[in-house]
Amino acid sequence: MQNTLETLGGLERRLNVAVPLADIEGEVQKRLSRLARTAKLAGFRPGKVPLKLLAQQYGPQLRSDVISEAVQSSFDDAIRAQKLRIAGTPRIEPQAGEAQAPDALGFSAVFEVYPEVVVGDPSQIAIRRPQVDVTAEDIDRTLDVLRRQRTTYSPVERGAASGDRVRVDFTGTIDGVEFAGGQAKDFPIVLGEGRMLPEFEAAATGMKAGESKAFPLAFPADYHGREVAGKTAQFALTVTEVAEPRLPELDSEFAKAFGIASGDVADLRREVESNLRLELKHKVAAIVKDQALKGLREQARFEVPKSLIEGEARNLRERMIANLRQQPGAKPEDLEIGVDVFRPQAEERVALGLLIAELVRREDLHAKPEQVRTLVQEQAQTYEQPEAVVRWHYEKPERLGDFEAVALEQNVVDWVLARAKVTDEAATFEGVMGPRPGA
C-alpha cells in the first residue's frame, strides 16, 4: 500500500492511498470460499454450490463490502502512520484517470486536522469579581415578589386604574376586515404590566364594567405579527369586569404555603435568605467564568477547523428547531432557519472546547471524583430525597457526564483566575442578579 499526503492550505489535507487490487480480489475469493461451505441454492445440497454461481449471485455485494472495508482500513493505517489528528468527517473520493494505477485501487481522502492550540498569556486577562452579600432589604424585596405572585383580585365598581385586572371583549378590524388574533372574549389584562400595546391599555384605563368604546391602534412596524405590522386597526372594546389587587398578608398562613411547617415568618425569611445566597453564589461564579473564558479565547491564537464549526452549527440549528416545535402556535415558517445564523456562535463554542481540552491535557486539569460528588450532592439537595438522587446518578457512569464537564470547566476557570488580573468590586444584589421576576 502506498500513500502520499498533501497540504491544501490551512488545516486542510489530502491523503492519496492505493490498495493493491490483488489484495481485494484475494479477500473476495476467501469470503466466497467461506460462503460456499454453508450456502444454499435451489437444486444444490448445502456446501455443494459451485463457486462460479456464488460469484455471480454474491460477488458484487462481497466485492463492494471488501472495497469499503479496505478503504477504511487503509485510511486508518495511513492516518496512524502519518500521526494525524482528524477533525470532522473526511470526504473520500475515488482517484480519477491517470492518477489511478492499473494494479491498484486508488482513493483520496480530504479532511482537516486539529490545530496546534496556542493558549496565550493568562496574566493579561482582566477580571472584575463582584463582592456582594444578601441584605435584609433583598429578603424584603423577594418576599414582596412572592406576595405579588399570589395576588388575588376583587371586583370594584370604579374605573380601571394601573394595577387593576380588567376582563374585556374586543374585536379588531383592518379596512373593515377582522384579522387573526384580533378578537377575544373575557380576556384578562393587568393594567401596567405592559403585556398589551400601550394604546390598548390606555383605552381600557378609566373604563368601568359594562362600558364600551371604539378606538384606533397603530401596530409598530416591527410588531411580531407580520400580517398586521405597520398597519392601523380599529378596535371595539367592552370591559366586563374591573378588579383591584389584594396582596396576601405576610403571616403564618403565607409561610406555611411555602413549606415552612412552623408557620414562623422568621423561618421563612431564613429560607429565603439561604436560597438567595445560593442563587448569588451561582450568579457570581457565572459572571467570573464568563470573563475568564472570554479572556482565554481572546488571548489564544489558532485556526478553528471549518468542519467542526459546520457540525456544531447544524447541531445548534437542530436544537433550536426542536425547541420551536414545542412552542404552542409554532408555524412552519418559524422553522425555516438557515444554518448560517448559527456559525458565529458555533465557531466560539468549538474554539472554546479546543482551548479547554488543550489546557486540561497540558495542565492536568481533569475533573476529580470528589469534585463531581460535591456537584451531584449540591443538585440533589433541591429534591425531597437527596440521598436517593445521588445513588441514582452513581448507578451508571454516563449519568455523571454533565457534572464531570462542569467540574472540568471550573478547573480551567480556577487555573485562569490564579494567573489573571482579578479585581474585587463592591456590588449590590440587584446589580448582580438583575430585577427579580414579578418585581
What order do the helices and strands come in, and which of them pair?
Layout (H helix, E strand, L loop, with lengths): L1 E8 L2 E9 H16 L14 H32 L3 E9 L9 E10 L12 E6 L4 H14 L2 E4 L9 E10 L2 E14 L7 H7 L7 E7 L13 E15 L5 H6 L7 H35 L6 H20 L17 H21 L5 H12 L5 H10 L5 H17 L3 E6 L2 H5 L6
Parallel strand pairs: 5-11
Antiparallel strand pairs: 1-2, 2-4, 3-4, 6-10, 7-8, 7-10, 9-10
Helix pairs in contact: 1-2, 3-6, 6-11, 7-8, 9-10, 9-11
The ordered string of helix (H) and strand (E) elements is EEHHEEEHEEEHEEHHHHHHHEH
Which homologous superfamily in CATH is the superfamily of the largest domain? Trigger factor, C-terminal domain
The main β sheet shows up as: 5 strands, antiparallel
In DSSP terms, counting alpha (H) and pi (I) runs of 4 or more, how many helices? 12
The whole-number mean of residue pLDDT values reads 90
Beta-strand percent range: 15-25%
CATH architecture call of the largest domain: Orthogonal Bundle
**How many discrete structural domains?**
3
**Helix share bin:** 40-55%
What is the tally of beta strands?
Answer: 11
